[in-house]
Automatic annotation (TrEMBL):
Transmembrane segments: 62-86, 98-121
Pfam families on file: Cas_Cas4
Record's protein name: DUF83 domain-containing protein
Keywords, comma-separated and alphabetical: Membrane, Transmembrane, Transmembrane helix
Superkingdom of the source species: Bacteria
Species per Swiss-Prot/TrEMBL record: Rhodopirellula bahusiensis
DUF83 domain span: 194-277
InterPro entries according to UniProt: Dna2/Cas4_DUF83, PDDEXK-like_dom_sf
């Protein structure tokens, strides 16, 4: 069977499923059988809880908007103070109380808005004050780089389309963002949690995105980027570490597992289950399933802990009562 025939006769895999498989084969199957597809992670949209930090134009726009808001709340504070003075002169205690309430609220709001401006100005200063630098690789090891160093070197962030490759590997996926400069498209991942260690599943994801970018756009990916958790610091992984051989082997192994319909063994390291989304305890709700296999809902496999019934997606799918996660153990220990 050649590669094209193999791809055509096999289900399309997402990069997310592949990296879950690399993490734990059970997690790969659960991700593959879930009833949602990889939508990718969107470039942040403007919302109240979001302050821009990756895009200088956005930071500057926010500084303008927040400055106007600050002027508004300062005016409101002054008006409220005038109201209090007037109401005091007119001996209207109810109006005085209301005036103080408005004054206090507006004063607190102005402090909050001032804090936002300080944060944004610091981000703007960091963005403008960083010198351009590009990663220099002497081996396949990741090297440290800062987001603003790359931006200063001329890379522009862009929200990429969802890439598809139905011809050869039958793979699809969408990196969080790509940094674009000339013929270079750099896929960017963001790490979650608090560990700054680059694991094999990060490398695999970058290799898959590199493959998808080069097949779909014909641009080059000389390296991939992993942003460290809650940080603008990053690790650049050279293209030499993002080869296709390992990617193809993992895809072939994963497809073989899917076709075999066998249940793989859980990992021997409990720490993997501890950090795994599929091992999280969920409260049992009667007649409701949250786990699907081959399009069919699976009955939850419950366990009684501290007087309540719980289940997990991994437990439901692989029929073991509780994956040995710390979170299940914590339920039994009242805090
Ligand atoms: S809970 Fe453990 S066995 Fe289950 S998918 Fe996660 S890592 Fe794998």
């Amino acid at each position: 069977m050649n590669q094209t025939q193999y791809a055509a006769s096999s289900p399309s895999l997402s990069v997310h499923e592949l990296s879950q498989y690399q993490y734990c084969p059970r997690a790969g199957l659960l991700a593959h059988e879930a009833l949602f597809d990889e939508a990718g992670e969107d470039w942040p949209k403007i919302r109240l809880s979001y302050l821009p930090k990756y895009n200088l134009a956005e930071i500057e726009r926010w500084i303008s908007v927040v400055t106007i808001v600050l002027v508004g709340v300062i005016v409101a504070t002054g008006v409220a103070l005038g109201w209090v003075l007037l109401a005091t002169l007119l001996a209207k205690p109810g109006a005085v109380g209301f005036g103080w309430w408005v004054f206090g609220s507006a004063f607190l709001a102005s402090l909050g808005v001032l804090y936002l401006i300080v944060m944004l100005v610091r981000r703007r200063r960091e963005a403008l004050g960083t010198k351009p630098r590009e990663p220099e690789f002497t081996s396949e090891e990741p090297v440290s780089i800062h987001w603003w160093e790359l931006r200063a070197a001329g890379y522009q962030p862009r929200s990429p389309p969802k890439f598809d490759d139905e011809e050869l590997l039958n793979l699809h996926g969408k990196p969080w963002v790509v940094l674009v400069r000339g013929d270079h498209w750099i896929p960017v991942l963001r790490m979650r949690g608090d560990s700054e260690t680059i694991h094999t599943n990060h490398i695999l994801r970058l290799a898959a995105y590199r493959y998808l970018i080069e097949v779909n756009t014909h641009y080059e990916t000389p390296y991939g980027l992993v942003l460290l958790p809650n940080s603008l610091k990053a690790k650049a992984v050279p293209a030499s570490a993002l080869g296709q051989a390992e990617l193809k082997t993992v895809i072939a192994d994963f497809r073989q597992l899917i076709d075999s319909r066998r249940a793989p063994e859980p990992p021997t390291r409990q720490s993997l289950c501890d950090k795994c989304f599929f091992g999280l305890p969920h409260r049992y709700v009667m007649n409701r399933s949250e786990t699907y296999s081959e399009g069919q809902p699976l009955p939850p496999l419950t366990v009684k802990v501290a007087g309540k019934y719980w289940h997990s997606k991994c437990g439901d799918r692989f029929r073991w009562h509780t994956p040995p996660t710390r979170k299940f153990a914590d339920l039994a220990e009242p805090s």
